[in-house]
Design brief:
Layout (H helix, E strand, L loop, with lengths): L2 E5 L2 E3 L5 E8 L2 E12 L6 E6 L5 E3 L7 E6 L4 E6 L8 E11 L5 E4 L3 E5 L2
Length: 120
């Protein structure tokens, strides 16, 4: 019943910006940490940024100073503002959330991914 849906990916030139969104829906009691991960062809999935339920954040070294993660608990939504994008940022970006559903225990949910391509 619980699902995450990402949006906002696309093609952008180096130095440009994109804003990703991920909305959780379903029978949700509480959302704990939320985060963004990415996976480029031939690479493993890596952490981009995470944010706690109360707003504490952490970032991968490669995106510090360029990306900002935020959340709106009233909307069950997490955002990733990406600035000064580089070709190395090209990847499939996945939303992740640790969620307590109304009918069960905590579980890590994943979105289906949204493609970000940085190219001139």
């Amino acid at each position: 019943q619980v699902q995450l849906v990402e949006s906002g990916g696309g093609l952008v030139q180096p130095g440009g910006s994109l804003r990703l969104s991920c909305a959780a829906s379903g029978s949700i009691f509480r959302i704990n940490d939320m985060g963004w991960y990415r996976q480029a062809p031939g690479n493993t999935r890596e952490l981009v940024a995470r944010i706690s339920q109360r707003g504490r954040t952490n970032y991968a070294d490669s995106v510090k100073g360029r990306f900002t993660i935020s959340r709106d608990n009233a909307k069950n939504t997490v955002y990733l503002e990406m600035n000064s994008l580089k070709p190395e940022d090209t990847a499939l970006y996945y939303c992740n959330a640790n969620i307590i559903p109304r009918s069960g225990f905590t579980f890590d949910y994943w979105g289906q991914g949204t493609q970000v391509t940085v190219s001139s």
